[in-house]
């Protein structure tokens, strides 16, 4: 109206809506827990793997086997590279790092609680695929096989390790412990089941054994010369009451030269008494000792005696021929001969 108060355009404008409250600030995203991607450069991966190997060695020396194992596994992941496009120098570097990582990882697996013998066996086999004469891989493979109760194959690997590491007492000590374990198991089995299989009259009877001792079947002189190592020397163990026990003790004590002579006396006695199952078992043990001494020619002759036992007596003799060794003894002889 005229004469009224003046009204500004701003006063006539509609009021502005109230400001919306500010949105809450979102926290910064946490760093990803995923492992970083592996480097693509093979040389860089080798450099990192070598550092992890040294780190794993330090942890193992500090009695941290679990931490060492984790570190070795990281190193092994870095070393898994296809070798098609790698230079020979880089291939050699990868192999030089991978072999000790595999062996150390196998050792950690053997010492794990519980023991992971199957995994350790796989790792050792991987080394032996590339290096068939790697003594450490043989030895740790044998330890894994013992844990898996594969005793015959473990014995074979320990014998090979002994021949490749003649100055290391550990494989020989484990080999003798394994053989003693086998002997104890056989003795226990014999004590448990011996009464079920009493010897009847005939070839294997006590009378037959005594008769053989008084001039019955024996190995021929040629057979003796084929097997025995000291055949032209006086053997002080021939007069022993129990040359077999002495042979085991001498072998365990590392007196291998005397052990050979004690084994000879034990073999001669079991043959003269026609105790053929015991005799063939002794041939196997005697052959193993020759393998330990790197006398493979004599070892092969011992195993051949089990596979092809000598005939005793003549066509006119009432003495039956020497029986064949048991199937299990022959299978063991074939394995050792191979």
From TrEMBL:
Biased composition annotated in UniProt, kind: Low complexity: 1-11
Q: What InterPro entries does the record tag this protein with?
A: AIP/AIPL1/TTC9 (IPR039663), TPR-like_helical_dom_sf (IPR011990)
What domain of life does the native source organism fall in?
Answer: Eukaryota
**Compositional bias (Pro residues) at which positions?**
12-27
What is the recorded name of this protein?
Answer: Peptidylprolyl isomerase
Pfam families in alphabetical order? TPR_19
Q: Where is this region: Disordered?
A: 1-43, 198-218, 309-338
Q: Which UniProt keywords apply?
A: Repeat, TPR repeat
């Amino acid at each position: 109206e005229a004469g009224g108060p003046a009204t500004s355009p701003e006063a006539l404008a509609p009021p502005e809506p109230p400001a919306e409250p500010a949105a809450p600030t979102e926290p910064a995203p946490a760093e990803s827990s995923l492992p970083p991607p592996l480097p693509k450069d093979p040389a860089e991966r080798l450099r990192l793997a070598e550092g992890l190997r040294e780190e794993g060695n330090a942890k193992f020396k500090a009695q941290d086997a679990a931490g060492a194992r984790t570190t070795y596994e990281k190193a092994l992941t870095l070393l898994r590279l296809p070798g098609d496009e790698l230079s020979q120098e880089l291939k050699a570097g990868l192999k030089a790092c991978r072999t000790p990582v595999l062996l150390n990882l196998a050792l950690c697996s053997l010492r794990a609680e519980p023991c992971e013998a199957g995994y350790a066996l796989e790792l050792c086999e991987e080394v032996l695929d590339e290096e068939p004469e790697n003594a450490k891989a043989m030895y740790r493979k044998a330890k894994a096989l013992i844990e898996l109760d594969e005793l015959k194959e473990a014995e074979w690997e320990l014998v090979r390790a002994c021949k490749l590491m003649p100055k290391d007492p550990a494989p020989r000590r484990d080999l003798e412990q394994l053989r003693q374990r086998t002997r104890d198991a056989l003795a226990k089995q014999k004590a448990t089941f011996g009464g079920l299989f009493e010897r009847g009259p005939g070839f294997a009877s006590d009378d037959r054994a005594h008769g053989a001792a008084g001039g019955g079947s024996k190995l021929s002189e040629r057979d003796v010369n084929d097997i025995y190592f000291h055949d032209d020397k006086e053997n002080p163990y021939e007069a022993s009451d129990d040359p077999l026990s002495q042979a085991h003790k001498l072998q365990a004590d590392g007196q291998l030269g005397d052990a050979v002579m004690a084994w000879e006396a034990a073999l001669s006695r079991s043959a003269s008494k026609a105790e053929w199952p015991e005799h063939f078992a002794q041939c196997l043990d005697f052959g193993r000792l020759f393998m330990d001494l790197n006398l493979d020619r004599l070892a092969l002759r011992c195993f051949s005696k089990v596979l092809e036992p000598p005939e005793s007596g003549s066509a006119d003799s009432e003495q039956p021929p020497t029986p064949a060794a048991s199937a299990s003894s022959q299978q063991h002889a074939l394995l050792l001969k191979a």
